[in-house]
Amino acid sequence: MRNRNTHINVRTTPLEKARFELNAERCGLSVSEFLRKLANGYKPPPAPTKEYFDLARLLSDMYADFRITGEDVYAKLIADTLLKLQSTIAPVKSNGNN
To answer: What is the pTM of this model?
Structure first.
């Protein structure tokens, strides 16, 4: 783990602070981590919503059901759909700097 022990004080308006906090929360990050990522040239995407996880769970259940019943064509279609869904939420980073 990195030894982060140097502080930076930044003055903001109450509105700017609220925006930092809201955007960090949307990304599932602390304000410090959110600002570190921005400073290093990475704009963190929003965290997936509950609806995303509900949909992924439903599709996973459908995939399992189709596999059990031997309907592999439908199982493959759902597996492909799940992979596409996942890639839209969490695309693979090519530069390795997440």
So the answer is: 0.55
Q: Is 85 exposed, middle or buried (0-12, 13-18, 19+ CB in 10 A)?
A: middle
pLDDT digits over 55-96, tens only?
A: 889 999 999 999 899 999 999 999 998 888 888 776 544 333
Q: Is the torsion defined by CA of 57, 59, 62, 64 positive or negative?
A: negative
Tokens matching residue 5: 């022990």
- Residue by residue, DSSP assigns 18-74 as HHHHHHHHHHT--HHHHHHHHHTT--PPPPPPHHHHHHHHHHHHHHHHHHHTT-HHH
Q: Return the amino acid letter for 19.
A: R
What are the structure tokens assigned to 45, written together? 């995407």
**Residue 47: what residue type?**
A
Domain boundaries, the chain: 12-47, 48-90
Q: Which residues contact residue 46 at a Cβ distance below 8 angstroms, ignoring those fewer than 6 apart?
A: 26, 27
Q: Which amino acid is at 78?
A: I
